[in-house]
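Changelog entry: the Twitching motility protein PilT record was regenerated in this release. Current contents:
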Amino acid sequence: MRLLLDTHALLWWWQDAPQLAEAARTAMLDPASEVFVSAASAWEIATKVRKGQLPDFGCSLSAFVDDVVRDGFNHLDVTARHGVHGGSLSGGHKDPFDRLIAAQALLEDMVVITRDREIAAFGCKVLW
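Regenerated structure tokens:
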């Protein structure tokens, strides 16, 4: 299974937080799963660190790229095709990060690990 982590799922994975659903954790640990982290998540985390919304994460920002690889995850770059699709998705979800992650999941045939029910409204397969 090809999994794409929503940003909160990645953060909770790194924090070993109880908020990460057990089904999500199990799927992420499954050796048969390919787990991807979008460049949109890097952008979202960096933006939130800059705005002071993730005060405990700032010192780890410089290690983001290496931490993704260390955990056995794959980086997923954002392409123009992803951007066009994300910007064109209909629906009321206004978060540009989530729209981009949804577009990537749809175009790359991935399941999104997210608790955000609005992502499924875009037609994405979700797991939580």
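The two ends are 14 Å apart (CA to CA).
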